[in-house]
Amino acid sequence: MADALGLEEVRRALAEDRAGDDVTTRLLGPAADARAIARFVAEGRFVVAGLPIVEVIFHELDPGGCLESHTAEGEWTGPEKAFATLRASGRAVLAGERVALNFLQRLSGVATLTRRAVDAVAGTPARITHTRKTTPGLRTLEQYAVRVGGGIDNRASLADAVLWKDNHWALLGAQRSALADALRSVPPGVAVVVEVEEDEQLDVALAAGVTHVLADNQPPARIRKWAGRVGPGVTIQASGGITPETARAYAEAGATLISIGALTHSAPAVAMRCDVTVDTRRHAL
Questions:
Q1: Catalytic residue among 18, 26, 165, 281
Q2: What are the domain boundaries of the chain?
């Protein structure tokens, strides 16, 4: 479990909830050590994401626990369907129930919103991706949920790629022709993306040899115009207030990458519950 997805986040969440100091479960006495069954039940329709995190949670609390998935990660589930069943000690189930639901509800919400956007651009060359507008401390898991929903990875941190945005243009001042000089210092192998807001900036970016431009807060009509100018060798990435409902217009205009901040900053948590019963199997002690 040393390299398990979400291990650091899980340990932080269990510590935050003081899972080892559950004063209520202590009142159960020896009954808390009975084997229990916990069924995770959907209360709506959503894409399941976060089951590997649940495994990590209960491995931390009860290494002998076992999680059985009835719906694969990344697949749809529906109302009143048990999409996973956990068998573990009652003490572990009660200690980790809320933490597991928090991760599942959040990550499934991200995956579901992503899937809606991916479905919206189906049949076009466009791919859906995330931004860095993530919950502090949960970026790795939220971007994982985007992938589960069918999206692709984008820049995960400031060190992953050059993203020259409006504030970099502002600090460069009127010397916009200096962009090419600045980009000469980019380390080999580091991707370069330059945001453009007007025709002049596009001209400067193309003159500097940029092959990936970010059209932020631009209407589809302008993206269509720019796509016609840059040709197939330049990626146009659209971003800024795009939703699953509007994504297809950008895809049809020529954006081949569409980044949607709402996937991680505004995805609603999905509804689910955890039903717990005693495991009455003969070998359960």
A1: 165
A2: 7-117+268-278, 118-265
Nearest to 246 by CA among 219, 276, 214: 219
Q: For the domain bounded by 118-265, which CATH number is listed?
A: 3.20.20.70
The residue annotated as part of the active site, out of 22, 216, 224, 252, is: 216
In angstroms, what CA-CA distances link 102 with 4, 66, 237?
A: 18, 19, 32
**Active-site residue flag, 195:** yes
**What pTM did the predictor assign?**
0.94
How far apart CA 10 and CA 52 sit, in angstroms, is 11
Catalytic annotation on 8? no
Burial of 144 (0-12, 13-18, 19+ CB in 10 A): buried
Among residues 132, 133, 155, 176, which one is catalytic? 133
Task: Give yes or no on whether 7-117+268-278 and 118-265 have one common fold.
Answer: no
Q: Considering the candidates 26, 45, 98, 229, report the single residue annotated as catalytic.
A: 98
Q: What is the rounded distance in angstroms from the CA atom of residue 204 to the CA atom of residue 185?
A: 17
The per-residue pLDDT for range 221-233, each reduced to its tens digit, is 999 999 999 988 9
Average pLDDT over residues 77-99: 97
Q: Could you tell me which residues come within 8 angstroms of residue 265 by beta carbon, excluding any fewer than 6 positions away?
A: 131, 133, 134, 135
> 280 falls in which pLDDT band (50, 70, 90)?
confident
If pLDDT is split at 50, 70 and 90, which confidence band does 30 have?
very high
Residue listed under structure tokens 């573990």: 88
pLDDT at 171: 86
Verify whether residue 133 is a known catalytic residue. Answer: yes
Number of Cβ within 10 Å of residue 184's Cβ equals: 9
Nearest-angstrom CA–CA distance, 257 and 214? 9
CATH 3.90.1170.20 fits 7-117+268-278, yes or no: yes
